[in-house]
Every structure is written in structure tokens, then in C-alpha cells.
Amino acid sequence: MTRSLDDAILHLRTNEREIGTWLLKTQGDVDVTADHDAFLLSHVDHWAVREIVLYIKRTLRRLDQTSRTTFTLIEPGSCFVGWLAEIALAADRSYMLEGTFEGSEHTEPIFQLTGMNAGPLTMDNHLTRLTTRFWGRDDAVARVESLVGEPLDAVEASDAELVTFAYDDIDWDDELRLAIEERASFSPDALTGMEANLRFPGPETMETKIFGRLTAWQNWIFTRPNASGSDGALQRYGTGRRPDFDRKRT
Amino acid sequence: MTIDSVDYSTLMPNNVGLADDQKLLRALERWYPKYLEWWVDMGPSGFIHETPFQEADVWLRTAVSVEQDGWAKFDFVKMPEYRWGILLAPQEEGRTIPFGEHKGEPAWQEVPGAYRAMLRRLIVIQGDTEPASVEQQRFLGRTAPSFYDMRNLFQVNVEEGRHLWAMVYLLQRYFGKDGREEAEELLRRRSGDEDRPRMLGAFNEETPDWLSFFLFTYFTDRDGKMQLEALAQSGFDPLSRTCRFMLAEEAHHMFVGATGVGRIVKATAEAMRDAGIDDPYDTERIRSLGVIDLPLIQRKLNLHFSLTLDLFGAEESTNAANAFNSGLKGRYHETVIDDDHQLLDSTYPVTKYVDGEFRHVDVPALNALNARLRDDYVDDCAGGVKRWNRYITETGVEFELTLPHVAFHRQIGEFNGLAVTPEGGVIDEATWESRRGDYLPTEGDRVFIEELMQQVTTPGEFASWIAPPQKGIGGQPVEFEYVQIPNT
Ligand SMILES: [Fe+2]
Ligand SMILES: [Fe+2]
Predict the structure, then answer these.
(1) Is residue B355 classed as helix, strand or coil in its secondary structure?
(2) Is residue B322 in a domain?
(3) How many angstroms does the Cα of residue B134 sit away from the middle of ligand 1?
(4) Is B23 near chain A, with CB under 8 Å?
(5) Percentage with pLDDT > 90 across chain A
(6) In angstroms, what is the span from residue B225 Cα to ligand 2's centroid?
(7) CA of B107: how far to CAs of B93, B232, B287, B375, in Å?
(8) Domain around B252
(9) What is the rounded distance in angstroms from the CA atom of residue A234 to the CA atom of residue A244?
(10) Per-residue pLDDT of chain B (488 residues; tens, 9 = 90+)
(11) Nearest CB to B321 within list A175, A180, A240
């Protein structure tokens, strides 16, 4: 499964260069996913398990470093549990459905932390995604870590600040459509730069300096035609005309 | 039910198929009690004898159709029971976006995500002005010069309430969660409130008396008309249709203003003639006749006109350029203007103060849209002033009411901070301040008007300072009891 995610990321990077927003979804059984995490955690000393966990960690770091916008959709039938919940924590925004869709065979979606969220899967800043998310708020980190093992519905997850938005089925389609269209209208370069900033608040490491700051800002913002070109944002600013953006990314 | 017929089966009469949209109906029904609470708290406040305005039966028109003729029906209604409806002008088959970058594309029936924030802001700003004016005018019934005028006031008030409904419908139908939050906020802000003021300056000023009310409906509702005209061009079709229908009601508000000021001017000029007073500045004698001296009317006019000009925003504006280029807000009479409707290369002459004089300076047309709308507005204001002056000349009194210079008494845009006389002379700040009382209403003016204006509650009678109208309204004669106390 990790390999599929890794492949998908690499495929989108090289072959779908104009897709600026990725929607991340999961599908599967919540309990099986939790059991899988428990199994990994109880065998961390085994060489194969260690390799698997390291592979998961590297793959998730690819998400942190992508030049694309990432939205996670937590819908009925999904399994954002443990290491898969890291995908939602890595995303720029996460949307979780309150209740279920009319006529859906699934019940309301669940968001659940496991021990995998509290240690092994650190980011480039050498911190967990939870610590990064609540940077400077140790009490908040302790509070969410106490939720490990608890199945959370949308309201609970949003109260715990684990997801960005919780919408019911009345709003779901329209809010998503508007958010995606809105993203697509922004300068992709500016998004890359600002999202990189938001993905890595707090302390710097060599990796965050290279991937979070240098790559994002040096490659995507400074001296790019999207900003300073004749049809770029700086030239068009104040004229009422929208800039023409080169939407290609890697 | 055809799409354009009005459905009365729901709490809110509507032609938007509310009965079939349970989600939206629920959202609006949740908002309704909060709206009513606002109306009772902040709507017309006062008594006729012992009866509160809100319990009186008022001869009001209610919109019942969206056809050109016969769209309204008159009846006695208690204001809290008014049927605030959601009415859009009929959908035009195959309408395209008339201007901007998307010109010629089919008009949007849903909000384009790229413009969501901009569009929501335009709707919220428009929506905010509607309840604001009701709040500003809430005490005026206490000094109404006749039942006829009291009715007109209440008519304007309930219709501003309906305009709020119109904007709230758009927010709740098209803007999801944020839209619902904005709809709540519209009921939370209060005109003139220190902590939660209304969004635009002129809507936080007081409307302390009836001369102000008429000038407000003449000048400030006319700004509303210009904004609605510009939004009626919008590529977002539901907004366009909503505004087109609101314009039908807005016409009456400006009629109330234009005729109201005219009747005040007429009463003054005729009283001067009858008393043999030629000098319009013989203030004491004129005021002792129970009428308002013409120079005071001019000062009030100066105030309301200049405050309203500020509502058009800075002459050169990137926001306005963006809204136009995106196809959200057009120009006055956009579709009949003969140009490319994109304005990428054209210019527009904007009045500026350069090197000691007022001059037209060509600026990119896209950036000058506020200036252009304001210029159209000033032209639109001229007609009424001309009619008012006719009442004066008819009596032989020598005085002319005029619109002050656009740079006079401005807080926003090019002329902010410039000390300009109503005639357009630029003078130093200290001199301007020393003449303030010649330009703008004074404390003495306020006291005089406050004492002058008393509630008149005899059908067919009018206060001394205002002439009766030429005819009544809603098929009734002038002396009709337009506001009635139940069981009398
Ligand atoms: Fe209005
Ligand atoms: Fe109005």
C-alpha cells in the first residue's frame, strides 16, 4: 500500500504536471487498519517491520515536500487511522463529513489516532506531525495524544483541531467545489511557497531548510515569470487583470 | 407552479422554488425568528397615541409577482406580519456575461470558486446597507408630518427589510457555511455602534429628522440604485436577477425622497411669498412661519450629498477593476454602452486636484470604474434638484438649490483632506472651519428642526413645514388614514 502511494506521488509529479491540487482519500476497514498499526508497533525490532516503517516515513515526507496543494477528504468508508491518518495531518487542508451521505451504504467516517501518530513517523523537522501541528502548545499535543485509540467523528475531530473543516452533506459538494476552484485560480507558485511555510513551522533542520525553504521559495517564487514576468502577478497587480500563470509543477 | 409565479405556501413568499429545496428552506426558517427579533428591536419604534407602530395597521404594498405591471398589491398590514418575500426577476434564457474577461460566456448559475470571496464581499456590503437604513430611520415615525408620510416611511423600511432578505437568500443558497455566518452577522452589526458598526460610513450617520430622511432617500438610496444597477449586470445570474427586482422597489424610495424634499421646499417658498418675505436669509422671520429656511435645506443637502459620494469609494480602485474584469460588477447601463466591455486598453477622465486646480486626468478605464459610477450618479441627481428649484421660482422667491462640488467635504478618495467650498474653491483649513456653519447644518439648525417637527395624527392634515402631496398612494386619496390603530 505504501508502495502504491509512493508510485502515485511519483506518477503525478512526472506525468501530471498541471494538476495543482491533489485530493487524498482512503477506503477500507477502520479496525483492520488499527490492527495493522498495532502489529507494526509490537514488532518494531524486527528488521522487516523497521524497513516498512521507514518506508512509510519516507513516503509521507514526500507529501510534506510536494509542490502541489493537498486536500484530504475523510468520507464514509474511509480508514484514516494511525499511519493513514498521517496523510490527513500532512495535507494542507482536511475535510471531514459530518454524518453520512444520503443513501450511502457506509456509516459516518471515523478519524482515529494510534501509537504510529505519536512517535515513529517524524517529518523533516524531526518532529511528529502532531507536534508540528500544535507547535508551541505542549498541552494541546498531550491532549490529542490522549485521544489515541479513540474513534472520533467529524465534530470531535474538528473540536480536537485534527481536521480543518467538518461539513454536513448539505454543504459538502459545494464547499469542496468552491475550495478546489478557488485553489486552482491562485498563483501555483505562491501556494507552493506559502504551503511550505505552513507545513514546517517551528525549528529548522537541514532538511526543512532545503526542502521547505530553499526549494519552495528559490525554485518556485524568486525570478519566476509567474511573479515577475510580463503577464505575471507583479506586473498585473493593481490593473484588475488576472495574471497568466504557468501551472506546470514537479 | 411555473418557475416565475410566486409561491405563497411557505413562510417566505418566493419565486425560487423554496418549497422544493428543503435544505435551504430549513436554513431560512432558522434565520427568520432572528430577523423578526431584529425587526422588533431595531425597526420602527414609537407610538401613535398609545399604540406602538408595530401594532398599527399600515397601508402597505407587498410584492406579489415579478411581472412589470401589477407586481405589488396594497393592503392593511401590521409590520411584523409583512410577507418578506424572496423574489428574483425572471431568468433570461441564454443570458451571457456582458463584460470583463469572461464576456460572452454563459452567465454563472452557481458561484465560480475563483471569485467566491470577492462575490461574497460584494453581496455582504450591499446587504449590510439594507438593515442599516432601517436602524437609522427607526425613530422618525415619532415626528411624522402626516399619516401619508408615516406610511411612506414604513413602506421604505419594510422594503429595505426585504432587500436584506434578498441578499441573505443569496448568501444562504450559494455560499454554504460562510454564507450562513455572514447572514447572522448582518443582523448583529448596528448602525452607529462603537463595537459593531455597519460597514459603510454614511450608514453609521444619524437620520435625525424628516428633512434628512428625504435627502437620504433621494441621495443615498440613489447610490443604492447605482450599486444595484451595476450588480444587476453581474455575470452571476442569481445576483443579477435579485438586483433587477430590487430596483423596482428602489424607485419608490427615491420618489419618496424627491417629492418629500420638493414638498418641503414648496411649503417654504409659498409661506415666504404669502408673508411677503423676499430675502431667503431672513432666517428668523421665515422660521417663525413654521417652515424650514432654504439655506438650511441647502446645508443639509450639502451634507447628505457629500456623505453619499464617499460611498462610491476611491476614484481609482483595484477592487473595482477586479470585480469588473471578473464579470461580477458592471457599469451603469453596461449593456447599452458602446464599447468593447472589457476596457483593457481604454482610459477614463477622472477629476483630480493637480497643481492648484481641478482637472480631468486620463487613467486606465478599468481602474476608474468607481469614478465613472459616481459621475453617472451625479448626473442622475440633477433632475430632482431642478424640480425643487421650480417650486421656488414659481413663487418668485430668488434662491437656487445646487449640488455642491464633488470635492466638497469628502473623507474618501482623491479629495480627502482637501478644504473645498461647496462652489469648488480650495481654501485653507482654518478658513473652511470658520465657515463650516455656512456649508453644513449647525447645532442651532438641529435644535430648530427638532422643535419644529412634531407628529401629526389627523388624517389629511400635514405639518406646516411640508406641503401635501399632489395625490395619495395605492389608490387612496391624500386624506386617507394610511396608518390605523386597530379597533378605532
Ligand atoms: Fe434597499
Ligand atoms: Fe432603498
Answers:
(1) coil
(2) yes
(3) 10
(4) yes
(5) 56
(6) 8
(7) 10, 12, 56, 28
(8) 18-484
(9) 11
(10) 344 577 877 778 888 888 888 888 888 888 999 999 999 999 999 999 999 999 999 999 988 777 766 678 899 999 999 999 898 999 999 999 999 999 999 999 999 989 999 999 999 999 999 999 999 999 999 999 999 999 999 999 999 999 999 999 999 999 988 899 999 999 999 999 999 999 988 899 889 999 999 999 999 999 999 999 999 999 999 999 999 999 988 999 999 999 999 999 999 999 999 999 999 999 999 999 999 999 999 999 999 999 999 999 999 999 999 999 999 999 999 999 999 999 988 999 999 999 999 999 999 999 999 999 999 999 999 999 999 999 999 999 999 999 999 999 999 999 999 999 999 999 999 999 999 999 999 999 999 999 999 999 999 999 999 999 999 998 899 999 999 998 75
(11) A240
Query: Residue A104 corresponds to which cell in the numbers above?
Result: 450511502
Task: Tell me, in angstroms, the distance from the centre of ligand 2 to residue B230's CA.
Answer: 15
pTM, entire model: 0.87
Q: Do B116 and A181 touch (CB under 8 A)?
A: yes
Chain A residues closer than 8 Å to B364 by CB? 239
> How far apart (Å, rounded) are the C-alpha atoms in residues B107 and B103?
9
With b for 16 or more beta-carbon neighbours within 10 A and e for fewer, the B201-212 pattern comes to: ebbbbebbbbbb
Nearest CB to A178; choose among B101, B113, B320? B113
DSSP string spanning B180-236?
A: HHHHHHHHH--TT-SSS--SSGGGGS---SHHHHHHIIIIIHHHHHHHHHHHHT-SB
Answer whether A240 sits within 8 Å of B325, measured CB to CB: yes
Structural domain count of chain B: 1
pLDDT for res B2: 44
Residues measured by CB to lie within 5 Å of ligand 1, the ion: B 130, 160, 163
* φ/ψ (deg, to 5) at B40: -70, -40
Sheet holding A93-98, edge to edge: A21-24, A69-74, A93-98, A165-168
The model's pLDDT over A10-26, given as tens digits with 9 standing for 90+, comes to: 999 889 888 889 999 99
Query: Chain B contacts of A171, Cβ < 8 Å?
Result: 176-177
CB pairs < 8 Å spanning A and B: 56
What count of Cα atoms within 13 Å lies in the side-chain half-sphere of residue B253? Answer: 29
A168 has a chain B CB within 8 A of its CB: no
Name all domains of chain A by residue range, CATH numbers in brackets: 2-183 (3.90.226.10), 187-236 (no CATH)
Residue pair B45/B53 in contact (Cβ under 8 Å)? The answer is yes
Ligand sitting nearest the alpha carbon of B165: 1
- Amino acid at the residue A119: G
| CATH code assigned at B464 | 1.10.620.20
Residue A240 sits at the chain B interface (C-beta within 8 Å): yes
Helix orientation angle between B429-439 and B294-310, rounded to the nearest 10 degrees? 120
Q: Quick check: B177 and A242 CB within 8 A? A: no
Residue B7 lies in a domain: no
Candidates B177, B325, B343: best to mutate against A (most CBs of A within 10 A) is B177
- Hey, what amino acid is at B313? G
In-domain check, residue B6: no
**What cell does B214 get?**
428625504
B58 touching chain A per CB within 8 A: no
**Cβ–Cβ of A240/B113 closer than 8 Å?**
no
Q: How do beta strands B72-78 and B347-354 pair? A: unpaired
Cα(A248) to ligand 2 centroid in Å equals 49
B227 in a domain, yes or no? Answer: yes
CB contact under 8 A, B367 and A182: no
Q: What is the distance between the alpha carbons of residues B53 and B141, in angstroms, rounded to a whole number?
A: 8
Measured in angstroms, how far is the CA atom of residue B224 from the centroid of ligand 2? 7
How many angstroms separate the first and last alpha carbons of chain B? 40
Interface check A15 vs B, CB under 8 A:
no
